[in-house]
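Fold Annotation — chain and its backbone

Encoding — discrete vocabulary of local shapes
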Amino acid sequence: METGTVYEKFGGLLKEETLTCIDNSLLMPNTCVLESVNPFSGYYNEVTGAEKPLYLYLVLEGSCSFEKTLRAAANIKKNFGFPFDAASGSVTLFGIHHPVIRIRNLQEFGHIALLQQAFLDEGMQFIRKTRKVEQVEAQIHLTKFFYLEPIGEMMFIDKSQAHHGYFIIPRYVGWDDFRDLTREVKFDAGLQIFDAATACYFENHTIFEMVRIYRENLNAEMLAAIRQRYLKLMR
């Protein structure tokens, strides 16, 4: 892969975050919109005073395909008037999988209800809020496109979203093992300030396993040091 060229890849991402169902009269009544109250905790827990990005999850009733979400988001963007990014996914809360639409890059909190109504007009159905969700650790799986620019050996910078980097690893690592592996990586005093998730993309009938690294102002040197530590421990 050539540096400077951006490659579009299709795949998925798995992460853990603390979620709370927003209690606000501005939202559509009796719906659950989950907010990540501590996004990228592996980074922001170590950096005080930084402004955290807003990540929201519109919880849906019943299943919703990736294609339906993609079509709906494309239609909404034609007339919505405000920028946003949407991805299809699921959130595991209290052992139950809930389909969601992940929303990021929304500039104002007051736009949430407008966006809910737009998705409702596209045929989406929202789950009725029946259970209190406050500061609950949840697994989040997203199906999405990646826009990756190579910056070194098996390493990429995400050109669609700042501060995100990726590198390919030689094998699949389950989430519990990955969590432990990341803790070991962070025992290195110079590699403590980053957040990590697992990811993958599909190409040529093959699945390529990746690690997603989040750190503000991430560069090739930082990403390479983190990658080498992961690979060393995986051996």
